Protein backbone atom coordinates (compact mmCIF):
# COMPACT_ATOMS: atom_id res chain seq x y z
CA UNK A 1 0.00 0.00 0.00
CA UNK A 2 1.13 3.56 -0.75
CA UNK A 3 0.16 6.43 1.55
CA UNK A 4 0.99 10.00 0.59
CA UNK A 5 0.05 12.56 3.19
CA UNK A 6 0.24 16.32 2.84
CA UNK A 7 3.33 16.07 0.64
CA UNK A 8 4.92 19.36 -0.39
CA UNK A 9 8.06 20.05 -2.41
CA UNK A 10 9.41 23.52 -2.99
CA UNK A 11 12.19 24.46 -5.37
CA UNK A 12 13.14 28.00 -4.32
CA UNK A 13 9.96 30.02 -4.63
CA UNK A 14 8.21 27.41 -6.80
CA UNK A 15 5.95 24.81 -5.21
CA UNK A 16 6.19 21.73 -7.43
CA UNK A 17 4.03 19.54 -5.17
CA UNK A 18 1.52 21.29 -2.94
CA UNK A 19 -0.04 19.42 0.03
CA UNK A 20 -0.71 16.28 -1.99
CA UNK A 21 -2.47 13.38 -0.24
CA UNK A 22 -3.72 10.10 -1.69
CA UNK A 23 -3.55 6.35 -1.07
CA UNK A 24 -3.05 3.40 -3.38
CA UNK A 25 -4.76 0.36 -1.90
CA UNK A 26 -3.44 -3.18 -2.12
CA UNK A 27 -4.75 -5.03 -5.16
CA UNK A 28 -5.46 -1.91 -7.21
CA UNK A 29 -3.98 0.06 -10.09
CA UNK A 30 -3.98 3.82 -9.48
CA UNK A 31 -3.56 6.05 -12.51
CA UNK A 32 -1.67 9.26 -11.75
CA UNK A 33 -2.63 11.82 -14.38
CA UNK A 34 -1.59 15.36 -15.05
CA UNK A 35 -0.24 17.71 -17.69
CA UNK A 36 3.46 18.44 -18.11
CA UNK A 37 5.01 19.94 -15.03
CA UNK A 38 2.04 19.00 -12.85
CA UNK A 39 4.21 17.34 -10.20
CA UNK A 40 3.80 13.62 -10.99
CA UNK A 41 7.50 12.77 -11.33
CA UNK A 42 8.44 14.83 -8.28
CA UNK A 43 5.84 13.00 -6.19
CA UNK A 44 7.11 9.64 -7.45
CA UNK A 45 10.74 10.57 -6.89
CA UNK A 46 9.99 11.54 -3.29
CA UNK A 47 8.07 8.27 -2.83
CA UNK A 48 11.13 6.36 -4.05
CA UNK A 49 13.60 8.23 -1.85
CA UNK A 50 15.31 10.05 -4.74
CA UNK A 51 14.22 13.55 -3.72
CA UNK A 52 13.52 14.78 -0.21
CA UNK A 53 10.16 16.36 0.63
CA UNK A 54 9.89 19.88 2.02
CA UNK A 55 7.15 18.54 4.28
CA UNK A 56 4.67 15.68 4.50
CA UNK A 57 5.17 11.93 4.17
CA UNK A 58 5.23 9.29 1.44
CA UNK A 59 5.09 5.71 2.72
CA UNK A 60 5.24 2.27 1.14
CA UNK A 61 3.78 -0.45 3.34
CA UNK A 62 4.02 1.96 6.27
CA UNK A 63 7.70 2.95 5.79
CA UNK A 64 9.57 5.64 3.88
CA UNK A 65 11.41 4.03 0.93
CA UNK A 66 14.79 4.64 2.52
CA UNK A 67 13.76 2.78 5.70
CA UNK A 68 12.76 -0.39 3.80
CA UNK A 69 15.28 -3.16 4.62
CA UNK A 70 15.73 -4.33 1.00
CA UNK A 71 13.66 -1.86 -1.04
CA UNK A 72 13.89 -3.78 -4.34
CA UNK A 73 12.13 -6.74 -2.69
CA UNK A 74 9.21 -4.51 -1.59
CA UNK A 75 8.85 -2.00 -4.40
CA UNK A 76 9.67 -2.13 -8.09
CA UNK A 77 10.52 1.25 -9.59
CA UNK A 78 10.58 2.41 -13.19
CA UNK A 79 10.98 6.17 -13.35
CA UNK A 80 13.15 6.58 -16.44
CA UNK A 81 13.56 3.74 -18.94
CA UNK A 82 16.66 5.41 -20.40
CA UNK A 83 18.49 5.56 -17.07
CA UNK A 84 20.25 2.20 -17.60
CA UNK A 85 23.91 2.11 -18.63
CA UNK A 86 23.91 2.19 -22.45
CA UNK A 87 27.00 -0.05 -22.70
CA UNK A 88 25.49 -3.00 -20.81
CA UNK A 89 23.28 -5.64 -22.34
CA UNK A 90 19.77 -6.16 -21.01
CA UNK A 91 20.87 -9.47 -19.52
CA UNK A 92 23.78 -7.77 -17.71
CA UNK A 93 21.48 -5.08 -16.29
CA UNK A 94 19.19 -7.75 -14.83
CA UNK A 95 22.08 -9.91 -13.62
CA UNK A 96 23.50 -6.94 -11.70
CA UNK A 97 20.03 -6.42 -10.24
CA UNK A 98 19.88 -10.00 -8.95
CA UNK A 99 23.32 -9.55 -7.33
CA UNK A 100 22.29 -6.33 -5.59
CA UNK A 101 19.01 -7.79 -4.37
CA UNK A 102 20.43 -11.21 -3.45
CA UNK A 103 18.26 -13.16 -5.90
CA UNK A 104 18.89 -16.43 -7.76
CA UNK A 105 20.35 -15.95 -11.27
CA UNK A 106 17.43 -17.80 -12.95
CA UNK A 107 15.27 -14.76 -12.16
CA UNK A 108 17.01 -13.04 -15.11
CA UNK A 109 15.72 -15.54 -17.69
CA UNK A 110 12.27 -15.58 -16.09
CA UNK A 111 11.95 -11.80 -16.26
CA UNK A 112 13.30 -11.62 -19.83
CA UNK A 113 10.64 -14.12 -20.85
CA UNK A 114 7.94 -12.30 -18.92
CA UNK A 115 8.57 -9.00 -20.70
CA UNK A 116 9.08 -10.54 -24.12
CA UNK A 117 12.80 -9.81 -24.66
CA UNK A 118 14.19 -12.75 -26.60
CA UNK A 119 17.79 -14.01 -26.46
CA UNK A 120 18.95 -11.74 -29.27
CA UNK A 121 17.44 -8.67 -27.61
CA UNK A 122 18.77 -9.68 -24.17
CA UNK A 123 22.33 -9.81 -25.50
CA UNK A 124 22.16 -6.42 -27.24
CA UNK A 125 23.57 -3.33 -25.58
CA UNK A 126 20.88 -1.11 -24.04
CA UNK A 127 22.22 1.83 -26.10
CA UNK A 128 20.87 0.01 -29.18
CA UNK A 129 17.42 -0.65 -27.68
CA UNK A 130 14.29 1.13 -28.91
CA UNK A 131 12.37 3.05 -26.24
CA UNK A 132 9.78 0.26 -26.17
CA UNK A 133 12.52 -2.32 -25.48
CA UNK A 134 13.91 -0.10 -22.72
CA UNK A 135 10.47 0.08 -21.13
CA UNK A 136 10.22 -3.73 -21.24
CA UNK A 137 13.67 -4.03 -19.66
CA UNK A 138 12.75 -1.42 -17.06
CA UNK A 139 9.63 -3.38 -16.17
CA UNK A 140 11.67 -6.59 -15.93
CA UNK A 141 14.09 -4.78 -13.62
CA UNK A 142 11.23 -3.42 -11.49
CA UNK A 143 9.69 -6.90 -11.16
CA UNK A 144 13.00 -8.67 -10.46
CA UNK A 145 12.62 -8.78 -6.65
CA UNK A 146 8.98 -9.93 -6.83
CA UNK A 147 7.87 -6.72 -5.08
CA UNK A 148 4.36 -6.12 -3.75
CA UNK A 149 4.31 -2.53 -5.05
CA UNK A 150 5.13 -1.04 -8.44
CA UNK A 151 5.84 2.65 -9.08
CA UNK A 152 5.94 3.36 -12.81
CA UNK A 153 6.42 6.76 -14.47
CA UNK A 154 5.02 6.77 -18.02
CA UNK A 155 5.79 3.08 -18.67
CA UNK A 156 3.71 2.96 -21.85
CA UNK A 157 5.90 5.61 -23.53
CA UNK A 158 7.42 4.15 -26.68
CA UNK A 159 5.44 0.90 -26.62
CA UNK A 160 3.50 -0.03 -29.76
CA UNK A 161 -0.23 -0.86 -29.50
CA UNK A 162 0.51 -4.55 -28.99
CA UNK A 163 3.02 -3.61 -26.26
CA UNK A 164 0.52 -1.34 -24.55
CA UNK A 165 -2.09 -4.12 -24.60
CA UNK A 166 0.48 -6.55 -23.19
CA UNK A 167 1.51 -4.17 -20.40
CA UNK A 168 -2.10 -3.50 -19.47
CA UNK A 169 -2.66 -7.26 -19.03
CA UNK A 170 0.53 -7.65 -17.00
CA UNK A 171 -0.36 -4.83 -14.60
CA UNK A 172 -3.97 -6.01 -14.25
CA UNK A 173 -2.84 -9.52 -13.40
CA UNK A 174 -0.23 -8.18 -10.97
CA UNK A 175 -2.88 -6.13 -9.11
CA UNK A 176 -5.38 -9.00 -9.15
CA UNK A 177 -2.77 -11.14 -7.41
CA UNK A 178 -2.62 -8.52 -4.61
CA UNK A 179 -0.02 -6.07 -5.93
CA UNK A 180 -0.28 -2.30 -5.63
CA UNK A 181 0.42 -0.23 -8.74
CA UNK A 182 0.96 3.53 -9.06
CA UNK A 183 1.18 4.40 -12.73
CA UNK A 184 1.61 7.87 -14.20
CA UNK A 185 0.68 8.65 -17.75
CA UNK A 186 -0.31 11.23 -20.32
CA UNK A 187 -1.93 8.41 -22.29
CA UNK A 188 -5.32 8.91 -20.81
CA UNK A 189 -7.06 6.09 -22.64
CA UNK A 190 -4.34 3.71 -21.53
CA UNK A 191 -4.95 4.66 -17.92
CA UNK A 192 -8.71 4.53 -18.37
CA UNK A 193 -8.37 0.96 -19.62
CA UNK A 194 -6.27 -0.35 -16.74
CA UNK A 195 -6.77 1.81 -13.62
CA UNK A 196 -9.21 1.16 -10.79
CA UNK A 197 -8.66 4.56 -9.25
CA UNK A 198 -7.50 7.88 -10.63
CA UNK A 199 -5.59 10.72 -9.06
CA UNK A 200 -5.44 13.84 -11.22
CA UNK A 201 -2.85 16.48 -10.41
CA UNK A 202 -2.54 19.98 -11.86
CA UNK A 203 -0.10 22.68 -10.83
CA UNK A 204 1.15 20.54 -7.95
CA UNK A 205 -2.31 20.11 -6.42
CA UNK A 206 -4.77 17.25 -6.47
CA UNK A 207 -7.64 18.14 -8.79
CA UNK A 208 -9.56 14.87 -8.47
CA UNK A 209 -9.18 11.61 -6.61
CA UNK A 210 -11.61 8.74 -6.77
CA UNK A 211 -12.60 5.50 -8.43
CA UNK A 212 -12.69 5.55 -12.20
CA UNK A 213 -16.46 5.07 -12.11
CA UNK A 214 -16.93 7.96 -9.68
CA UNK A 215 -14.90 10.29 -11.82
CA UNK A 216 -16.51 9.32 -15.09
CA UNK A 217 -20.01 9.45 -13.61
CA UNK A 218 -19.27 12.95 -12.38
CA UNK A 219 -18.31 14.23 -15.80
CA UNK A 220 -21.33 16.55 -16.16
CA UNK A 221 -22.96 17.41 -19.47
CA UNK A 222 -21.62 17.48 -22.98
CA UNK A 223 -23.26 20.04 -25.24
CA UNK A 224 -22.76 21.17 -28.83
CA UNK A 225 -24.21 24.40 -30.10
CA UNK A 226 -24.24 26.43 -33.29
CA UNK A 227 -23.04 29.45 -31.23
CA UNK A 228 -21.18 27.83 -28.30
CA UNK A 229 -19.56 31.06 -27.03
CA UNK A 230 -22.88 32.65 -26.15
CA UNK A 231 -23.99 29.54 -24.25
CA UNK A 232 -20.61 29.22 -22.50
CA UNK A 233 -20.86 32.82 -21.29
CA UNK A 234 -24.39 32.29 -19.99
CA UNK A 235 -23.39 29.11 -18.12
CA UNK A 236 -20.28 30.71 -16.67
CA UNK A 237 -22.41 33.67 -15.61
CA UNK A 238 -24.51 31.20 -13.58
CA UNK A 239 -21.36 29.93 -11.84
CA UNK A 240 -20.74 26.75 -13.86
CA UNK A 241 -17.35 25.50 -15.05
CA UNK A 242 -17.30 25.25 -18.83
CA UNK A 243 -14.47 23.49 -20.67
CA UNK A 244 -14.26 23.38 -24.47
CA UNK A 245 -13.22 19.96 -25.83
CA UNK A 246 -10.80 19.55 -28.72
CA UNK A 247 -13.66 18.87 -31.16
CA UNK A 248 -15.74 21.95 -30.36
CA UNK A 249 -18.15 20.65 -27.72
CA UNK A 250 -18.50 22.10 -24.22
CA UNK A 251 -18.23 20.14 -20.98
CA UNK A 252 -20.31 21.68 -18.24
CA UNK A 253 -20.53 20.79 -14.55
CA UNK A 254 -24.35 20.87 -14.61
CA UNK A 255 -27.29 18.62 -15.42
CA UNK A 256 -28.47 18.45 -19.06
CA UNK A 257 -31.75 20.08 -17.96
CA UNK A 258 -29.91 23.16 -16.62
CA UNK A 259 -27.82 23.40 -19.78
CA UNK A 260 -30.93 23.01 -21.96
CA UNK A 261 -32.67 25.79 -20.03
CA UNK A 262 -29.66 28.08 -20.41
CA UNK A 263 -29.65 27.36 -24.15
CA UNK A 264 -33.35 28.14 -24.44
CA UNK A 265 -32.96 31.37 -22.45
CA UNK A 266 -30.17 32.58 -24.74
CA UNK A 267 -31.87 31.36 -27.92
CA UNK A 268 -28.94 29.03 -28.66
CA UNK A 269 -29.50 26.26 -31.20
CA UNK A 270 -28.16 22.94 -29.85
CA UNK A 271 -26.95 20.09 -32.02
CA UNK A 272 -26.19 17.72 -29.11
CA UNK A 273 -27.03 17.57 -25.40
CA UNK A 274 -26.25 14.58 -23.20
CA UNK A 275 -24.65 13.46 -19.96
CA UNK A 276 -20.91 13.29 -20.49
CA UNK A 277 -20.47 9.81 -18.99
CA UNK A 278 -19.39 8.45 -22.35
CA UNK A 279 -17.21 11.42 -23.21
CA UNK A 280 -14.16 9.60 -21.89
CA UNK A 281 -11.43 10.45 -19.53
CA UNK A 282 -9.75 12.79 -21.97
CA UNK A 283 -12.52 15.36 -21.69
CA UNK A 284 -12.66 14.90 -17.94
CA UNK A 285 -8.88 15.28 -17.72
CA UNK A 286 -9.06 18.51 -19.71
CA UNK A 287 -11.80 19.85 -17.49
CA UNK A 288 -10.03 18.96 -14.27
CA UNK A 289 -6.60 20.16 -15.24
CA UNK A 290 -8.04 23.39 -16.62
CA UNK A 291 -9.61 24.09 -13.24
CA UNK A 292 -6.45 23.02 -11.39
CA UNK A 293 -4.37 25.37 -13.50
CA UNK A 294 -6.69 28.30 -12.95
CA UNK A 295 -5.35 30.86 -10.51
CA UNK A 296 -7.07 29.39 -7.48
CA UNK A 297 -5.71 30.20 -4.05
CA UNK A 298 -3.55 27.45 -2.52
CA UNK A 299 -5.66 24.59 -1.23
CA UNK A 300 -8.87 25.77 -2.90
CA UNK A 301 -9.11 22.68 -5.08
CA UNK A 302 -10.02 19.53 -3.19
CA UNK A 303 -7.46 20.06 -0.44
CA UNK A 304 -8.78 17.14 1.58
CA UNK A 305 -8.86 14.63 -1.27
CA UNK A 306 -12.55 14.09 -0.83
CA UNK A 307 -14.26 12.12 -3.58
CA UNK A 308 -15.01 13.75 -6.88
CA UNK A 309 -18.56 14.83 -6.02
CA UNK A 310 -17.20 17.09 -3.31
CA UNK A 311 -14.71 18.72 -5.67
CA UNK A 312 -17.43 20.20 -7.83
N1 LIG B 1 15.18 19.60 -9.68
C1 LIG B 1 14.30 20.57 -9.92
N2 LIG B 1 14.62 21.87 -9.74
C2 LIG B 1 13.74 22.85 -9.96
N3 LIG B 1 12.47 22.65 -10.39
C3 LIG B 1 12.09 21.38 -10.61
C4 LIG B 1 12.98 20.27 -10.38
N4 LIG B 1 12.30 19.12 -10.68
C5 LIG B 1 11.06 19.51 -11.06
N5 LIG B 1 10.94 20.85 -11.03
C6 LIG B 1 9.73 21.60 -11.37
O1 LIG B 1 8.66 21.10 -10.63
C7 LIG B 1 7.47 21.08 -11.42
C8 LIG B 1 6.89 19.67 -11.45
O2 LIG B 1 7.73 18.87 -12.28
P1 LIG B 1 7.49 17.30 -12.48
O3 LIG B 1 8.63 16.78 -13.30
O4 LIG B 1 7.22 16.67 -11.18
O5 LIG B 1 6.13 17.28 -13.33
P2 LIG B 1 5.47 16.09 -14.14
O6 LIG B 1 4.02 16.13 -13.80
O7 LIG B 1 6.19 14.82 -13.88
O8 LIG B 1 5.66 16.56 -15.62
P3 LIG B 1 6.24 15.78 -16.90
O9 LIG B 1 5.17 14.84 -17.29
O10 LIG B 1 6.46 16.88 -17.88
O11 LIG B 1 7.50 15.11 -16.43
C9 LIG B 1 7.85 21.61 -12.79
O12 LIG B 1 7.51 22.97 -12.86
C10 LIG B 1 9.36 21.44 -12.84
O13 LIG B 1 9.96 22.41 -13.64
Automatic annotation (TrEMBL):
MF (Gene Ontology): ATP binding; ATP hydrolysis activity
Domain ABC transporter: start-end pairs: 2-228
InterPro entries named in the record: AAA+_ATPase (IPR003593), ABC_transporter-like_ATP-bd (IPR003439), P-loop_NTPase (IPR027417)
Top-level lineage group: Bacteria
Keywords of this entry: ATP-binding, Nucleotide-binding, Transport
Pfam families noted in UniProt: ABC_tran
Family: Belongs to the ABC transporter superfamily.
PANTHER family to which the protein is assigned, alphabetical: ABC TRANSPORTER, ATP-BINDING PROTEIN
Protein name: ATP-binding cassette domain-containing protein
Organism the protein comes from: Kineosporia babensis
